[in-house]
Amino acid sequence: MIVHVALSIPIAKTFSYSVPEKWESFIRPFSRVTVPFHNKTLTGFVIDVEAKDDAGLKVVSDIIDIFPLIDGMTARLCEWASHYYVTPMGMVLKYALPQTLKIENYIVIRSLAPCSSALEGISLKKAYKSTGKDTIFQYFQDGVIELRDIFAEKVFEPSREAGAAKAVSKKTLYIGNIENRLAYYMTFISELISEGKNVLMLLPDYYAAGRFYHKTFADRFKNNVIWYGSAIKAKAKMDAYFKARNGNGFLILGNKSCIFLPIPDLSLIIVERQEEDEYRNEEGFNYNANMLALRLAEAEHIPIIFGSASPSMEMFKNGEEGRFNVIGNEQEIDKKYSIVLMKKGLAGQDVLPDKLIAVITDAVQKNENVALFTPRRGYMSHIQCLECKRTFLCPFCEGVLSLSKKGNMLACGICNKSFTYEDQCVYCGSNLIRTAFVGAEYIEEELKTIFTDSHIMNITAETIKKLRKTVSDISDGRRLILIGTQSLSKIYGMHVNKMIFVGWEELVRMAGYRSEEKMFQIFMNLLDILAPEEIYFFMDRKLAVNPVRFFGLERFYTEELKKRKAAEFPPYSRFFLIDVEKKREEAGLKMLDKINRILEQEGLTEHVTGPMKQKRRGFYRWKLILRGNEMLFQKALLSIYGLPGVHIEADPMNI
User: Fold this and answer.
1) Where are the beta strands (DSSP E) in 586-642?
2) What does the pLDDT read at residue 304?
3) pTM of the complete model
4) 159 pLDDT tier (thresholds 50, 70, 90)
């Protein structure tokens, strides 16, 4: 027998191996196997099986699972994702079924015949060691043992395909505030759980949104609510995995990775705040969970609801063009607001503006809650060498680095990587460094020296992960001054009287072609979650924008889509980014030449912008942007995928 295996490496082809006779009857499509590859042992997935032999092939080393854990629904989703994101199948499957999923640790054996009585009650992992994996596989195939998970003690067996086809899936975009969205979701969830059907709800994160929704739904549906995803321990995650895989009448909450869960009787998918960047996966392979959720709903004929106060441009466009049923009649924002124009914003200032302090003082004297938004989370968010005049940029994504006094670290706000700050220029070695553009950490420090009796909290992507309670619980009835980035919009259940925007207009320079969309979404989500009574804008006079154009959803989206269409930007076209990085310029130019020849052979030259050359920390980098769709670039990009020093990203967030 010969198997064709997709390895979890960036190479767009399968590799052929022969199968030892003892494993032949157990091999199935999507079985995980270990195989020799270039003096290493790698894990891969069987994609195809041929009933013939080839003595010249290397031999499969081992089978990992007693039966394939990838079910038909997940396999179809992975195949689509591989094509849509032009990613080798092995890379997709690696993420869909991570190696950390150690099934054998949480399965116990029940003996069904005298020959297997010695195995009664022991774990599958121990049984493999004591009796031999091939013997256990044979016992299972012959029906003399049964497998049960250690949590619910339910039978663990291969997933079954769904029965009769369901009606055509209904796609809904619900635009409304948090209270209305929650009520809308609750109606459908309650009905389906009572019928013993399963619902999958995607949330952007666990620490804020996840905790809020888990508590809210658990109060209503008790043990029928489970969380699968990051931020929980391995055993708890496996408990959730088995419940989702074997149970009925569950609401499964999770972040982007749970889109690959094999869920029987899945009857509804909900995606809350689908515009959040947390739905984008940047490791393993690049994908957006929104698109996978939509594809899953379409393929399996399941209704799907996208809920938001500020949907993405693509989702709004789908609604405008009739591909989604749009529900929501939110009116234009009618809030009391004030604009304060500053000479230089907060750049390089040693003290906070008097007018800003006056607004916060007024709130404190009135015993009001106040929240202050800033786009920067660190202490200072612009570090520049006075010798060579270069700004400190992230070596991975070239985002502007910010300085955090806590731990003396440099952090990238785009890719979230961090580095130790050496107090010298990374480019020329000079110690003449200038910092500017204050962030949340600086503002927090300053306000704590002024409002010593107030409870002041810093709410950013880092600090929110450390919270063990909701902010309203932590406040314990005391009035709060909240300072933070867009993470403030995830403080569910919190109300503030005054909402202050400091540096909001700077997002125009920070978010590429999506800048105004991000400004709108941050603005709307902060108002949605915190429900302020008064709004204040402190803006740099030279960069100031008129906030009124962001006060109406339909008007803003209509104008923005017109601009995107004229420029042929997403959602009217897709972008694919080819990133080449080499230590030597000559090597990079040779690689660029090779890539250009491939693109030219496929007739794609007119779809290419670039290359754009940069030099960062001893490396040369070139960027090529392809404008089109996956069908157009499929063959060329898969040919380029495995080239050394080359990275491909579909639908990059920043261009």
Assistant:
1) 608-616, 619-628
2) 97
3) 0.91
4) confident
Cα separation, 261 vs 270, in Å, equals: 15
Question: In this structure, how many other beta carbons lie within 10 angstroms of the beta carbon of residue 471?
Answer: 21
Nearest to 366 by CA among 492, 454, 440, 459: 454
Rounded CA-CA distance 500/372 in Å is: 5
Q: Calculate what percentage of the chain has a pLDDT beyond 90.
A: 58
Cα distance between the two ends of the chain: 48
Output the DSSP codes for 453-477: TSEEEEESTTGGGG-SS-HHHHHTT
> 45 has which bridge partners?
6, 32
- Report the alpha-carbon distance of residue 591 to residue 611 in Å, rounded: 12
Task: Summarize the confidence of residues 265-288 as an average pLDDT.
Answer: 91
- pLDDT > 70: what percent of the chain? 94
Lowest-confidence segment of 71-75, 301-305, 324-328, 383-387 by average pLDDT: 383-387
pLDDT score of 161 more than 70: no
The H or E element containing residue 594 is: helix 585-601
- Take residue 411 and report the two structure tokens written for it: 């952090």
Q: Alpha carbon of 61 to those of 69, 182, 328, 377: distances in Å?
A: 19, 50, 56, 49
- Amino acid making up residue 258: C
Position of tokens 């009905």?
191
Residue 201 has pLDDT above 70, yes or no: yes
- Predicted confidence at residue 101, as pLDDT, reads 83
| CA dist., res. 397 & res. 496, Å (int) | 35
- The strands making up 62-63's β-sheet, listed across from edge to edge, are 15-18, 2-7, 40-50, 32-37, 62-63
Neighbours of 132 (CB within 10 A): 12
Find residue 628's DSSP bridge partners: 574
Please state the rounded mean pLDDT for residues 532-549.
Answer: 90
Token output for 155: 């039978």
Residue 607 has a CB neighbour count (10 Å cut-off) of 18
Burial of residue 445 (CB within 10 Å: 0-12, 13-18, 19+) is: middle
User: Cα–Cα distances in Å, from 111 out to 26, 123, 155, 311, 487?
Assistant: 20, 12, 13, 53, 52
Q: What is the dihedral of CA 128, 131, 135, 140, to 10 degrees?
A: -60
pLDDT on residue 469: 64
- Report the distance separating Cα 331 and Cα 125, nearest Å: 59
From the centroid of its chain, how far is CA 360? 35
Predicted pLDDT at 162: 56
For 490-546, give the secondary structure using H, E and C. HCCCCCCCEEEEECHHHHHHCCHHHHHHHHHHHHHHHHHHHCCCEEEEEEECCCCCC
Residues 69-108: tens digit of each pLDDT: 998 899 999 999 999 999 999 999 998 987 778 899 999 9
Cα-to-chain-centroid distance, residue 85: 15
| In contact, 503 and 305? CB cutoff 8 Å | no
Measured at the CA of 140, the angle between CA 137 and CA 145, to 5 degrees, comes to 130
In the prediction, which pLDDT does 345 show? 60
Burial 392-421 (b: 16+ CB within 10 A, else e): bbbbebbbbbbbbeeeebbbbbbeeebeeb
Mapped onto helix, strand or coil, the DSSP state of residue 120 is: coil
- Assess contact for 389 and 381: CB atoms under 8 A: no
pLDDT at 165 over 80: no
Q: What is the DSSP letter of 140?
A: H
Give me the amino acid identity at 484: G
- Under the banding of pLDDT at 50, 70 and 90, the label for residue 476 is low
